[in-house]
Each structure stands twice: as structure tokens, then as C-alpha cells.
């Protein structure tokens, strides 16, 4: 029985590390894409990195909440994502925001399609709202 508990604990730790690694990988891809699309300068890239670092730190802070209060966790996670998206938009100049708007329009279309698929599968309201923020 102790072996099974140890195995379950190891699987839980591995799954958390894998999920965290996926988030960091997604942030790196998003960062690279934003820099190329909006032609951010060095100062803006520095601020962008700070925004991503804060998002990762904030997600780590609320990670334990997922086990105790999933709805609160999801709400806080959506707020973190929305806040970082707004911060990214605000660091850009107006001509960069035009490129960013075009980029995010495509993202919103993809998210809308994902939400429609979730509705057809009768997914929970929380899953559908998460999809609106790109959280799958």
C-alpha cells in the first residue's frame, strides 16, 4: 500500500512539473511571436519579460488553491491572464497595438471555435469561460 501511495505522489509531482513546463514553453512561444509581430524595442521586451515573470509567479501562488477551491482558482487564473494581456497591450505604442489587435483577433476566433466545441460537448460553464481566456 505504501508503494502505491509513493507512486501516486511521484505521478502527482511529475504532472505538476509537466504542466508548469508547458506554461513556460507557451509563454516563450507567445513572447517570440509578439516580438516579431509588433517589433518591440529592447525596453519593451524587458517589460514584456517582467509581465511574463509576474504571470508565472502569480500562477504559482494560486496553484494550491486548485486542490481546495477549483472555482476560486479558475477565477483567479482568468484574472491573471486578463491582467497580463492588458499589461502587454499597454506597453505598446499605438502602431504596435494595431499589429497586436490583428494578432489577437485571430486568437479570439480560435478561442471562439474552441468554446463552440465545448458547448457542443456540454462542457461545464467554467471550462467554456476558461476557453475564452485561452486556458484549455
Q: How would you characterize the overall build of this protein?
A:
- This protein is mostly helical.
- The chain is built from 6 helices and no strands.
- It has helices at 2-38, 42-62, 65-68, 70-90, 94-120, 125-132.
- 12% of the residues are buried.
- Residues 1-20 have low confidence and may be disordered.
Largest sheet: none
In whole angstroms, how far apart are the ends? 34 Å
Order of helices and strands: HHHHHH
Number of strands: 0
Strand content: under 5%
Low-pLDDT parts are 1-20
Structural class: mainly alpha
Number of helices: 6
Describe the secondary-structure layout.
Layout: H1 2-38, H2 42-62, H3 65-68, H4 70-90, H5 94-120, H6 125-132
Short summary of the structure?
With 136 residues, the protein is mainly α. The chain has helices at residues 2-38, 42-62, 65-68, 70-90, 94-120, 125-132. The protein is 87% helix and 0% strand.
Pick out its properties:
mainly alpha
